[in-house]
Write a structure and sequence with these properties.
Layout: H1 2-10, E1 12-13, E2 16-17, H2 20-59, H3 65-76, H4 82-97, H5 100-129, H6 134-168
């Protein structure tokens, strides 16, 4: 009985109560829709970073620039730890197939791109997609990470957008 009352209190839509299961289904559907949109934004950013890395690697005459850029693209889709895995692999591969100077320059490019992504691109692109100021995206990721660690960072932006959309309705 208590659980039913709590569910009905939590699930209020358009100033009227709906059945708890219908409201919950609708809210979950909306959350997953937002999550898909966030994922699309992250793919756009990863693609931009992959193409940019490819351009820099070609300018530096690094062998296998295309394959290494693909590694960075796919690893960048893994939130927050992927770039360390992919970037580390790329730097080590360049160390073996190129020179230590090329490896060091590639490390600089990867760090620069990661800073650009984390501090500017992701908040800007996702903020524009969801009509949220980039600082709120940045704060959501910081708070999500501080409270719930990596899972909190992954779910922070979709959750912040969901809360904003729910309050707006």
């Amino acid at each position: 009985m208590k659980q039913k009352i709590i569910m009905e209190i939590l699930v209020v839509k358009n100033n009227r109560k709906e059945s708890a299961m219908e409201g919950l289904k609708e809210n979950l559907k909306e959350f997953f829709n937002i999550f898909k949109r966030v994922l699309k934004g992250k793919i756009k950013i990863a693609l931009l970073l992959g193409v940019t890395a490819y351009s820099f690697f070609k300018l530096m005459h690094i062998p296998y620039a295309g394959v290494l850029s693909l590694v960075l693209f796919f690893s960048n889709l893994i939130p927050y730890i992927g770039i360390f895995i992919g970037g580390g692999m790329v730097v080590l591969i360049i160390l073996f197939v190129g020179s230590w100077q090329q490896s060091l320059m590639a490390l600089g490019v990867i760090i620069g791109l990661q800073l650009l992504e984390g501090m500017y691109l992701e908040p800007k692109v996702l903020g524009k997609e969801f009509n949220m100021h980039p600082i709120w995206i940045f704060i959501a990721v910081l708070l999500g990470g501080a409270v719930f660690g990596i899972p909190g960072m992954i779910l922070a932006v979709p959750l912040a957008v969901f809360i904003k959309e729910t309050i707006r309705k």
